[in-house]
């Protein structure tokens, strides 16, 4: 979708939003979705910043930026252990032809050992689920002291 020019901007923004003013360390997930349903609501790139111990993370991708005024959105951390991390977030999308607002509900499951990611997107006013699979580079970001 927009990954060719958004990746550097989004990555820099994510690093700043996760670490700015925070004295704690964080985990940054930089993901590429390569196998996906044929729909642009599942992004090609996805960035998740999760401060250590926090119950929320920041999510940034081309869909989020497009529908959220070029800003990341907060995601709930619904599972976090040595093996897996699960994040859930919502994006208010476009309106339908009948002028009903559309909300996209995302879930991302990341295997913290292999970097494998599965992203599911459920769109209101649309039956079924869109999905994608890919891999994440997972890095610890040190906090300032």
What can you see in these coordinates?
This protein has an eight-stranded antiparallel β-barrel with strand order 1-2-3-4-5-6-7-8. The chain starts with a helix and ends with a strand. The chain contains two helices and eight strands; from the N terminus they run αβββαβββββ. Mean pLDDT is 83; it is low at 1-10 and 12-16. It is globular, with a radius of gyration of 15 Å. It has 145 residues and is an alpha+beta fold. It has one domain (3-141). Strand 4 and strand 5 form a beta hairpin.
Write the layout of secondary structure elements.
Layout: H1 3-19, E1 26-36, E2 45-51, E3 56-60, H2 62-67, E4 73-80, E5 84-95, E6 101-111, E7 116-123, E8 130-141
Antiparallel strand pairs: 1-2, 1-8, 2-3, 3-4, 4-5, 5-6, 6-7, 7-8
């Amino acid at each position: 979708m927009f990954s060719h020019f958004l990746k550097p901007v989004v990555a820099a923004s994510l690093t700043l939003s996760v670490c700015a003013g925070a004295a704690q360390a964080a985990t940054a997930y930089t993901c590429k979705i390569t196998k996906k349903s044929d729909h642009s609501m599942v992004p090609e790139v996805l960035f998740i910043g999760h401060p250590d111990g926090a119950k929320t993370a920041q999510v940034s991708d081309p869909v989020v930026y497009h529908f959220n005024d070029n800003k990341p959105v907060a995601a709930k951390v619904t599972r976090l252990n040595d093996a897996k991390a699960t994040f859930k977030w919502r994006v208010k999308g476009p309106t339908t032809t009948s002028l009903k607002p559309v909300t996209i509900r995302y879930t991302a499951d990341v295997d913290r050992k292999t970097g494998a990611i599965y992203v599911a997107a459920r769109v209101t006013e649309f039956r079924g689920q869109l999905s994608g699979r890919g891999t994440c580079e997972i890095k610890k970001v040190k906090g300032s002291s």
